[in-house]
Structures are given as structure tokens and as C-alpha cells.
Amino acid sequence: MESEYLVVFCTCPPDAARKLTEMLLARRLAACVNCVPGIESSFWWRGHIQHDQEALLVIKTRRDRFPALSAAISENHPYDVPEIIALPVVQGTKDYLRWIDDSMDETPGLTEQESAPNND
């Protein structure tokens, strides 16, 4: 059985991370985006090894939103070939998975405090 929930990885230039995060949240394509700054990526690009400073976006979403999420990142990302890799969530707490559903289905305009999971 395929997981209903995904964690998506996307690297980007540090100055693009906030814009991509805000866009994904505003469109309800993600319930949460963690931005991990200060990573160094090394990769092949056009026949040469390249090293770049990047930010890593860790995106929590649902499988049904992945096509739109992938398209939105591709359209708004500064790279020609952005990293968009999805991994299934094998297990998660019932409360957190419900929060993902609720966050992605709520009416836009709620404050962060109103839509954040209760960590008390």
C-alpha cells in the first residue's frame, strides 16, 4: 500500500528558500517546510563537478498534492533542474498526520498559532 503522506526534499540557493517556502504554504501544497541552511552540495553539472552553498527544504505533504507541488517548484525555482525527491512516510503519529491533513485543507488566512500542532 502506498503511503498517503510524503516528505519531499528540494535544494535551492539560500536566497530562494523563503520565497519557495511561502509559495508552497500559501497554495496549500505543503503543511510544513523546514529550511536547513548552510549545506554544501557537490554534484555533476554539464560534465564538471560543482560545489555550491545551498539550503535544503524538507517539505511535508500528501501524495495527492505532489504533482501540483512539483510543478510549482519547477516553475518558481531558479535552477534548470531542481532537486524534487519524494519519500513515503512509513509511519507517523496519528495526531501529526491529522495535522498535515487539517493544515492542507483549512481555509487560508489562519494564523500560524491557530494551525500549528499543539506541542504542550
Task: Record keyword descriptors for this entry.
alpha+beta; Alpha-Beta Plaits; four-stranded antiparallel β-sheet; 4 helices; globular
Explained architecture:
It contains four helices and four strands; from the N terminus they run βαββαβαα. It has one domain: 2-Layer Sandwich (Alpha-Beta Plaits). The chain is globular. It has 120 residues and is of the alpha+beta class. It has helices spanning 14-26, 66-76, 94-105, 112-115; strands at 5-12, 32-45, 48-62, 85-88. A four-stranded antiparallel beta sheet has the order 2-3-1-4.
Which helices and strands occur, and which strands form pairs?
Blueprint: E1 5-12, H1 14-26, E2 32-45, E3 48-62, H2 66-76, E4 85-88, H3 94-105, H4 112-115
Quick structural summary:
The chain has 4 helices and 4 strands, in the order βαββαβαα. By secondary structure, it is of the alpha+beta class. The protein is globular.
The helix content is 25-40%
Work out the number of β strands.
Answer: 4
Low-confidence stretches: 110-115
Order of helices and strands: EHEEHEHH
The first-level CATH class is given as Alpha Beta
Rough outline: globular
**Share in β-strands:** 25-35%
With strands numbered from the N-terminus, the spatial order across the biggest sheet is 2-3-1-4
User: How far is the N terminus from the C terminus?
Assistant: 33 Å
Q: Counting H and I runs of at least 4 residues, what is the number of helices?
A: 4
Largest sheet: 4 strands, antiparallel
Sheet/helix structural class: alpha+beta
Mean pLDDT: 91
> How many structural domains?
1
Q: Report the CATH topology name.
A: Alpha-Beta Plaits
Radius of gyration: 15 Å
Q: What is the annotated CATH architecture?
A: 2-Layer Sandwich
